[in-house]
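Per reviewer request, we include the raw input and output of the structure prediction for the construct analysed in the revised manuscript.
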Amino acid sequence: MTQPASAPASTPTVEELEAQERRLVFTRFTHEDAWALGSLLVEMARERQAPVAVDIHRSGQQLFHAALPGSAPDNDAWIARKRRVVERYGSASYLVGARHRAKGTTFEESSRLDPDTYAAHGGSFPITVEGAGVIGAVTVSGLPQLEDHRMVVEALTRFLDAGTV
């Protein structure tokens, strides 16, 4: 069971989501960084008893994957679909969906991409490195899409604020 929120949080605007991406940028991203970030996400999920799967890819290679109790094989499929959105658009999967909703449509209606291959649902966030751009994605699946997104953003914020990269 996830921890109840003290007050319902509002849905972030496109501008707020874009600001997250500008803020959450690495100076480098190594295999060790993937392990540390993935381990942080697993620790957060365990504390919250969140039934999630966590995945980190860099340059087409899976560097980290964990499936916590309560997650299912479907979470791996969702991870792949959300990650493909990040890889194609260079933006968080939730932000891509939000941009379509802001235009009064949906990703599925207007992208013309196969929904079995791409999902603009929250939970996958670009790994952006200064001077290199988007090099990968960190993805969580198992909670409602906004909560997946928020978990990744919280982990990235904590990780980057720790000053290890």
